[in-house]
Amino acid sequence: MKQILIDPITRLEGHGKIAIFLNDKGNVENAYMQIPELRGFEKFAQGRRAEDMPQITSRICGVCPVAHHFAATKALDDAFNVEPTLVAKKLRELMYCGYFIYDHILHFYYLGGPDFVVGPDAPAAKRNVLGVIEKAGVEIGKEVIKHRAYGQKITAILGGKATHPVCGLPGGVSKGLNNDEVKDIETMTKSCKDFAIFTLKLFDDIVLANKDYVDLILSDPYQLKILNMGLVDKNNKVNFYDGKIRVTDLDAKEHVKFDVKDYYNIIAEHVEEWSYIKFPYLKSIGWNGYKDGKGTGLYRVGPLGRLNASEGMATPLADKEFKRMYKTLGGRPVHSTLAFHWARLIELLYATERTLELIKEPDITSDDIRNPVGKPGEGFGVVEAARGTLIHHYKLDKDGLIDKANLIVATVNNAAAMNMSIRDAARGLIKDGKVNDGLLNMVEMAFRAYDPCFGCATHTLPGQMPMKVKIYNHNKELYKTLKQNL
Amino acid sequence: MGPATRGGCDAQCLDANMPCTGCHGPTPNSLDQGAKMMSALASILGIEGEEKMSDEEVQKLIDQIVDPVGTFYKYGLANALINRKVM
After folding, report:
1. Nearest residue of A to residue B70 by CA position?
2. Which of A135, A200, A361, A458 matches a 20 to 30 Å C-alpha distance to B82?
3. Is residue A138 a part of any domain in this protein?
4. Is A337's pLDDT higher than 70?
5. Structural contact between residues A296 and A325, judged by C-beta atoms closer than 8 angstroms
């Protein structure tokens, strides 16, 4: 049996590798996406002050710190038995939308988009943001950088810092907004909204107007028929910051809708010896292996998961785009992995529209931003990270120190889905042992659509660390190889 | 943690109405940031009635710091006197 290794995989957050196994005929027997890194945040959070968690967990990731910041803050609201003020909730959601603006721009133009803009089998050295700028022009490149920075600035105005915000406190936030800041945010967001509309148009022109790309999106290797999960508001519309977790089935019907407090009863995790990542599935259906179609208990999160799990977007322009996407791709739910990119851009537009709504709220400059906390206990928090549903769960001791922390991170929810997506792409694309850089990149496109963050995802200590130690003698010749759990 | 750690951040956290946690780490001149900060706090803690306090009252003051290692070495523990990385 021959093994093809893509190591490291590129244009993602964190580290990973793909191992593809070919049979004697040169066709793909199986493929695995492995995550060979380990973080361990749940362990070293123990004994820390609970109110430090929004700042500690935001260090898990430099890309979606705001998601961890507010998942932690919401878990603290619950753990300290306090309801944040209405103004605080609005400010948090406002900042959260700023984070979605920069994160989604980052993925489309820097990580996932180059495969479409420059082409899936373009030379590797061109498949990046510089290739995009070369193709789309320097002026557009400047706009990309400017609007990503606007998203960062909006989070910095509210959060104190862009990358590791500090404003989240149980019961509210530490800082309100003044009129000048409101004006700044409004000006930047209006520009971001135009840029989101431009980006959707760009997607139309480059991807949807190209029959090869549309065929690729709808082609078999990139279909994955599993369930979908996302946060929804009371009208079952997508919401990033708050709401109930909704799971829809293969016919886009509601399978279950639950409060984050019940996650333990709904979600279970399967463990494999070949990866540090865990594989969640729905308890009600059970673990049935890496199979899609009828009877699967697996689900997807992230932009496409959210749109599939909802009934629409809560803002007008984004909702129009939502309807257009489903009309174009044949109705809800869409099972094409590459449609994640389109869904992401619709969410980008929603984030800008929602920011403009929130900034116009009459009490947005109020200083009623925090309620006093109660006694420490147990708390659950959920938000939609850009890449999917993120849950923080803490148990506090009587002094308000962390006794136990559990994080179910967005990318973890997609672990099984990504593994199946790269397997199916490899099986569909690699035939008779013929393989080249372009084909392998198309295998990578199957995971890249999910915008995974493995820095976030591998956070638990499995107990047995797989390890290989090579000992060399003074002539630098291999003397002995020691192995453990391998 | 400002008095014991490096600045250069334009006091972003203080501007957001939050305390400094020392994310830029110790200055080149300080051997141990945690000891420096404890020393800074000790010189102001209970400054008005320290001499008349009983041991229990002093203990009560100190107990307000529930997570000393996490507080004083939040970003600097990897290179500190306390774990003999700095001697």
Report:
1. A48
2. A458
3. yes
4. yes
5. no
Q: How confident is the model at residue B46 (pLDDT cuts 50, 70, 90)?
A: confident
pLDDT tens for A289-332 read 999 999 999 999 999 999 999 999 999 999 999 999 999 999 99
Question: Please, are residues A185 and A91 in contact by the beta-carbon 8 Å criterion?
Answer: no
CB contact under 8 A, A175 and B74: no
ipTM: 0.89
- The span from the CA of A335 to the CA of A300, in Å, is 10
CATH number at residue A116: 1.10.645.10
Answer yes or no: is A132 within a domain.
yes
User: Average of pLDDT values for A352-372?
Assistant: 97
Q: Do B70 and A48 touch (CB under 8 A)?
A: yes
Yes or no, beta carbons of B23 and A164 under 8 Å apart: yes
In sequence order, what are the beta bridge partners of A393?
Answer: A380, A406
Of A55, A164, A401, the CB nearest to B66: A401
Chain A residues in contact with B17 by the CB 8 A cut-off are: 167, 174-175
Whole-angstrom Cα distance, residue B78 to residue A364? Answer: 42
Distances (CA, A) of A249 to A327, A332, A344: 19, 10, 21
Beta-bridged to residue A312, according to DSSP, are: A237
SS3 A459: coil
For chain A, say whether B3 makes contact (Cβ under 8 Å). Answer: no
Domain contains A193:
yes
Single-letter code of the amino acid located at A148: R
Residues of B with Cβ-Cβ distance to A48 under 8 angstroms = 67, 70
- Of A381, A384, A301, A392, nearest to A350 by C-alpha is A384
Kindly report, residue by residue over A417-462, the tens digit of the pLDDT.
999 999 999 999 999 988 999 999 999 999 999 999 887 766 555 5
User: What pTM was computed for the model?
Assistant: 0.92
Phi, then psi, of A278 in degrees rounded to 5:
-100, 165
| A466 falls within a domain | no
Number of domains chain A is built from: 1
Tens digit of each residue's pLDDT (9 = 90 or more) over B53-68: 888 988 888 888 889 9
Q: How far apart are CA A47 and CA A30, in angstroms?
A: 43
Q: Please report, as a single letter, which amino acid is at residue A325.
A: M
Q: Which of B1, B14, B15, B17 to mutate to test the interface with A (most CBs of A within 10 A)?
A: B17
Q: Any idea which residue has 């993120």 for tokens?
A: A390
- Measured between CA atoms, the residue of chain A closest to residue B64 is A399
What are the residue ranges of helices labelled H in A137-209?
138-159, 179-203
Alpha carbon distance B9, B14 (integer Å): 10
Each residue of A3-15: pLDDT tens digit? 999 988 988 888 8
Rounded distance between C-alpha atoms, residue A84 and residue B1, angstroms = 28
Beta partners for A401? A49
Q: Is B12 in contact with A164 (Cβ distance < 8 A)? A: no
Identify whether the C-beta of residue A375 lies closer than 8 Å to the C-beta of residue A80. yes
Q: How far is CA A200 from CA A106, A117, A181, in A?
A: 15, 13, 28
